[in-house]
Amino acid sequence: MVGERGESMEIFFYQLFLVGIFLIAFPVPSSSSSSIPVRHFQFNVEWKKVTRLCHTKQLLTVNGEYPGPTIIINEGDNVQVKVTNRVARNTTIHWHGIRQLRTGWADGPAYITQCPIGTGKTYTYNFTVTNQRGTLLWHAHYSWQRASVYGAFIIYPRMPFPFSAPVQAHIPIIFGEWWNADVDAVENEMTLYGGGPNSSDAYTINGLPGPLYPCSIKDTLIQTVERGKTYLLRIINAALNDELFFAVANHTLTVVEIDAVYTKPFTTSAIMIAPGQTTNVLLTANQNPGDSTGMYVMAARPYLTSVFPFDNSTTIGFLKYKTTTGIERNKAPYPPYSLPSNLPPMEDTAFATKFSKQLRSLASVDYPCNVPKEVEKARNNHYWPKLARLSC
Ligand SMILES: *[C@@H]1O[C@H](CO)[C@@H](O)[C@H](O)[C@H]1NC(C)=O
Ligand SMILES: *[C@@H]1O[C@H](CO)[C@@H](O)[C@H](O)[C@H]1NC(C)=O
Ligand SMILES: *[C@@H]1O[C@H](CO)[C@@H](O)[C@H](O)[C@H]1NC(C)=O
Ligand SMILES: *[C@@H]1O[C@H](CO)[C@@H](O)[C@H](O)[C@H]1NC(C)=O
Ligand SMILES: *[C@@H]1O[C@H](CO)[C@@H](O)[C@H](O)[C@H]1NC(C)=O
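^ thats the input. predicted complex w/ 2-acetamido-2-deoxy-beta-D-glucopyranose below
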């Protein structure tokens, strides 16, 4: 249940530091801005009628997509996202994890680095992605809008990947939460009574809850893979409140990057991922389905970290091996399946601890780990807390 704590820490961080230090502490990028490739995106914040779990409701989206559009850029690109607000609500978009070097005002949190974008208004986020590569996410940063307004932010590296496996395809795997109720009502009720929010009704993978929920068999992610090939899963936890375990039946995952920072690769039976976090893993389709269905369950469920009620359900999708004959055998209703035996139980703190302890930065020549090894006496460290005086 780190979601809210994470967000409020984030806000605290911005308030104290971003406006002050970041503006003064980093040098101007040496290349002139005219030589930097510019990537333009148009985001329309708009309602879209969406049905899940037999509940149809107006969902806040970007460009009518749920999850929202994937941003794909190259390291070093200048990104310009024109956000137009077409709903009778305020909104902003936050580029979660992007270091806004000298562009703090493009960061997105409403009332922290900008006034909200009002109905009918447009705001262009303009920032350059410098010295970062990998998977991040973007999401709305106004009240609980990030419940449905989120998407992947993928930065291709300038240099080749530091791992040798040839990657057949990049597959975004984005976890989210679905409420049958209007999320504004859920948030308002929480604020009114001061307790936790009502639990979500489902977890989703790429917006799809999967067959363990009512009315959801048709809303199931099926990812086709080819035997012998290796895939880069770009896993994003866009759920609001829950740390999740994720595993793929009969397959291991090799972690190579977390939060757009390369790690020393390690192989694991499952991962744990906190809200707002991203994890890149390599998955090799190394099973021999033979006469079996060629379907392997991928599943996510929460790591139980709270005494408050929470959504304890499980979302699943399928990894589906391409058949040599090309004949589709695996349409819904699906063949019998069970949860992956390598999916940790919800109380598995031992797994969570073991997993976290394996994380090491790559610390290679190309990607050094420049952590200060000595504590410097306050030398030229200027802290410039500032208060926004702009009245929104
Ligand atoms: C949007 O934000 C402005 C500025 O903070 C505020 O005055 C207005 O009431 C908000 N509108 C809505 C619909 O919440
Ligand atoms: C974006 O920012 C760059 C450099 O900070 C500036 O040169 C450019 O004019 C800006 N573009 C827009 C559309 O604001
Ligand atoms: C929250 O859950 C309670 C108990 O199930 C229910 O009575 C209430 O209507 C829910 N609130 C919202 C906003 O869905
Ligand atoms: C997957 O692993 C389980 C044990 O966890 C085993 O029973 C099953 O036969 C395996 N399935 C396939 C298709 O290899
Ligand atoms: C999930 O929570 C509900 C209600 O809080 C409880 O009845 C149910 O047994 C729990 N399920 C699991 C798998 O823990």
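Confidence is low (pLDDT under 50) at residues 1-32.
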